[in-house]
Amino acid sequence: xxxxxxxxxVLLCSSIADEKSIRDADIFPSSPEIERGSTLKLFxxxxxxxxxxxxxxxxxxxxNHELIAQENYNIVNETVSSVTIHNFTYSKAHxxxxxxxxxxxxxxxxxxxxxxxxxxxxxxxxCIYYFDTELTCTWTSGRETxxxxxxxxxRKMMREGRVILQNTVACRSKTESCxxxxxxxxxxxxxxxxxxxxxxxxxxxxxxxxIPLERIEKFEPPEILSVKKIAGIKQLLTVTWKMPEKxxxxxxxxxQVQYRNLYSNSSEFVTVPLSSGDRTGSCxxxxxxxxxxxxxxxxxxxxxxxxxxxWSRGKTASTEEKAPSExxxxxxxxxxxxxxxxxxxxxxWKPLNSFPPSGxxxxxxxxxxxxNNAALKMTNISxxxxxxxxxxEEAYLVSVTAYNSAGDSPEAILRIPPADEKTSxxxxxxxxxxxxxxxxxxWIASEPExxxxxxxxxxxxETDPFGRSWQYVSDSTNWKTNKKNFKPFICYNILVYPSYGxxxxxxxxxxxxxxxxxxxxxxxxxxxxxxxxxxxxxxxxISKDKRNGFISNYTIFYKPEGGKELNETVNADxxxxxxxxxxxxxxxxxxxxxxxxxxGTTGEPKTFKxxxxxxxxxxxxxxxxxxxxxxxxxxxxTCILKKHAFKKVCWPDVPNPAESIxxxxxxxxxxxxxxxxAVTSEAKTVDFxxxxxxxxxxxxxxxxxxxxxETLEDDLCESQQSSIKNEENVNEVLKLEDFGEKxxxxxxxxxxxxxxxxxxxxxxxxxxxxxxxxxSTVLPPFQQNVTGQPYITLDMFGLATAH
Length: 803
Description:
Layout: H1 2-24, E1 25-28, E2 33-35, E3 40-46, E4 59-63, E5 66-67, E6 73-75, E7 80-85, E8 92-101, E9 104-116, E10 123-130, E11 134-140, E12 150-159, E13 162-173, E14 177-181, E15 191-199, E16 202-205, E17 209-210, E18 223-228, E19 237-242, E20 253-261, E21 268-274, E22 280-285, E23 293-302, E24 315-318, E25 329-334, E26 342-350, E27 363-370, E28 378-382, E29 386-392, E30 396-404, E31 407-408, E32 412-416, E33 427-434, E34 438-445, E35 452-459, E36 469-474, E37 478-482, E38 492-500, E39 503-504, E40 508-512, E41 526-527, E42 535-538, H2 544-547, E43 553-560, E44 566-571, E45 576-579, E46 587-596, E47 599-602, E48 606-609, H3 615-641, H4 643-650, H5 669-682, H6 688-698, H7 709-721, H8 727-734, H9 739-742, E49 756-757, H10 766-769, E50 774-775, H11 794-801
Parallel strand pairs: 2-9
Antiparallel strand pairs: 1-3, 3-7, 4-5, 4-8, 6-7, 8-9, 10-11, 11-14, 12-13, 12-15, 15-16, 15-17, 18-19, 19-22, 20-21, 20-23, 23-24, 25-26, 26-29, 27-28, 27-30, 30-31, 30-32, 33-34, 34-37, 35-36, 35-38, 38-39, 38-40, 41-42, 42-45, 43-44, 43-46, 46-47, 46-48, 49-50
């Protein structure tokens, strides 16, 4: 329902547009086709929509985008204007009709004009006849007309040289070919063919050309039934084929056999005639290569026709085989001896590219035996081109033979040397270089009589012994091979072995890259503990699979924070370097670049900071401190060992007179007071210190200056020891009743007093005299004796002697 509405809307719109077009303007003739170079005349008609405001005088014309001159205009009436264009040479152009009113242009209508030529007479009529199937004819039309041209092919029957019109059959086409199909393809030898060409400018017809169908017959290609060899007959193949069914009967045929071996790009041909009744054909292909595969195709033609059939579908077959005539190319890789005294010998070989080849190899026979005992020969069979033998450390002879259905090849023999055999170094040097297309290996031998060598090459990281390549070189000391045999950016080991007889001498080796690029990664920098002005930078070698060439050098880049970058370059065998003259207490960034012939690659950077002080600075600072500490430690040890001696010097023990065994001192207060009074009265006329010394001389203790406590104790001990001799004098002293009158003042008497009494001189200032005459003072421990008795301190003497 919806689609119906859409169609109704489209029809309505188109009808409205048509009415408007007729009403507004029209041009005729519409889409004219004229002969090139002729005169074109067109008419433009205004519709009712433009009248009466506009008329034919307002119409202007354009050819494509160019305005046509008004002298070519003609006003037919008020609504019709015409234009004449002389010598129209455009192959295709647009003529437009405008109206100009009040200075404005409005397109009314336009049309497309084509120009061309009338057709030429067709010629070169030729036909191909497929018996009872198809008849196709082609022709040439001459020059291009540039206009729509139609062709009509007429097939007419002829009799006695005249055309029979009633047997005319036509075939129409817009191209220069037309075909009749079954059942309009009867066979007759009396047909002629005519072609008529026509367009709007005219028509032209060719003559009716007689063409016998047997001369234009082309049949389908034959079918090959078999291509096979004959047992026991070498270098021969027999080919058999059959003809197609649809073919004109009673015609002799000619067939052509094409054959080509698969190693060649050129073909050879053999022509085989067939009689009219033969529907099959065969032939023998001789002088072929042994054991070679051939491709065969066949085509045929009628003996009176001009058209060959297409080639049949090809078929392949191989000639009879013969025994391989060449021995295999044999090589070996010997591993080191195992702990059990055995070793693995890897044998590999490749058939020689003999030409022509002998045939398809079915397998290989491997034989080996100790060099000195051929009776122990052993045999292995392999269909692969490699094998691993487990041999002992003796010398062995190994042979490999290839075989096919016709027989065996000659033996390829190789000697496996004993494990302990030492051979001389015949090759002195080896060098390699590359050209644009080749890798060249050259060597120098010390023995010119050696004329045969083996060049072996393999990737440095190759671990499979069967992954090696080799080639024998004779009568030359250089070897060349295509660069395609080597991978780029891979390191190869190349070894050259001198060969004499079945023995090989010691090889000479070299490594090479056929093409280099910069390393895939750079070394990772590391540092040891930095010093004040130097540091050792270390790095590891780049792994072999990342080098992409021979490392030529390393460059160490280092830069202080905020400073200029510096660098040092070292050889490829150096893996650490000491950077010197660095700034102290400074952070540095260091990285390494590894370079080869193709460029350099940097590794990850490492930062470090130099020390503020180096070992010498630390030693310079630490030595005085250490010596000082050792001195203090020695002093401390000395103090510990001499404690009593230092104690006697620094903290003397003052003996307590109250506990003295020499005399019992009266300790009453009245005596002390009287003693102090006497001292005070005498201080004005007699020096107090002299009195003290005189009184101490008159005492029991020998007259000495005031000493430390321990010294005084020693003196007391000495006095006790001498008391026996001085007993009478001592007793006399002890019996004194009035100490203040009979003996001089002894300072030790103050030890029995519990308080300190200050003796004030009369000559002291008044403010000093007004101070308390005596005060109780708690003494520090070092000023007390063992029993805790107070003693007279030095300040007492100071006050007593003050003036």
